[in-house]
Amino acid sequence: MTDKKIQIIPAIDIIDGKCVRLTKGDYEQKKVYNENPLDVAKMFQDKGIKRLHLVDLDGARSRHIVNYRVIEQIAGHTDLVIDFGGGIKTDGDLKIAFEAGAQMITAGSIAVTNHDIVSQWIKTYGADRIILGADTRNGKISINGWKEEGEQDIMDFLGSYIGEGIKNVICTDIERDGMLQGPAVELYKTIMKAQPGLNVIASGGVSCMEDILKLDEAGVKQVIVGKAIYEGRIELC
Are 13 and 20 in contact (CB under 8 A)? Predict the structure, then answer.
């Protein structure tokens, strides 16, 4: 275990200011794990974690940032590097997220519906601060809190941003998210083969350390883990 190179990035998903997890992105299948996300973030930091993936699920559903106060709390009381997503649709949303303390943001649905604005964000803030969010179901990109399945093929979507200088993509297989049935290793291999310069951050389906080691062996450098940590299947140390 000690020779693994992959970085584990814990996820905190927020609804009504609480730390929750969904199953397959279904808001009706919600489980609250902690009333106070700051406590969870502090626990992660105490375990040696350096980076946090923070998702505003209320924002994703409302199509504008909602839980920015949670960013402020975590940024103000921990040293965690926060990448934030959910509801970022406008320049104003982006500004709120950065001013609240997020070091990076994930452009998900907006990257599908408004290529021009995300392209401008990459130019203005740099590719290190703008992460592409690629949420996929059946090979197609889904948007708006995974409630809408788009027409765009994931490989075409990724290819459209390579010329913009994008460096990092969080790729989530929605059918695996929250299911604890293993990550989409073959999908990530396909993406990395097609776009070798792109850093693919795996997300969805991780159930145990063996899953993480499989991703490591496949060449994935970073993985977002949520339910497996909260359910005690993966112990951070």
Answer: yes
Give the model's pLDDT for residue 23. Answer: 80
Task: Using a cut of 0.85, tell me whether the model's pTM lies above it.
Answer: yes
Query: Is 165's pLDDT higher than 70?
Result: yes
Which residues participate in catalysis according to the annotation? Answer: 13, 135
Residue with tokens 């399945």: 149
Summarize pLDDT for 35-60 with one digit per residue, the tens.
999 999 999 999 999 999 999 999 98
Q: How many CB atoms lie within 10 A of CB 96?
A: 19
In whole angstroms, what is the distance from residue 14 CA to residue 86 CA?
9
